[in-house]
Design goal:
Elements (H helix, E strand, L loop, with lengths): L7 H13 L3 E6 L2 E6 L1 H6 L1 H10 L4 H14 L2
Antiparallel strand pairs: 1-2
Length: 75
């Protein structure tokens, strides 16, 4: 949530949309939900993900988000 500067409810809605459209799958462990790309997304959407990654490589917003991810992951 900190990385994307979005509220928990907004992120939950986005994840529900992704789940309902078979882009991610989820599993619950206690109170925690874990998400990963679905098999469909991994096989069918990977060219799109690669295109987005390559075309946004010079985006200042993307670079700032990646820096925030690095900060969160280092905690």
């Amino acid at each position: 949530m900190d990385t994307l500067a979005l509220s928990q409810s907004v992120i939950s809605r986005h994840l529900a949309y992704l789940r309902n459209n078979d882009i991610v799958v989820a599993r619950r462990e206690g109170v925690w939900m874990y998400y990963q790309l679905s098999n469909y997304a991994q096989s069918e959407l990977m060219p799109l993900f690669n295109f987005i990654q390559n075309s946004s490589a010079n985006s200042k917003k993307v670079q700032a988000d990646l820096a925030n991810v690095s900060k969160v992951n280092s905690c």
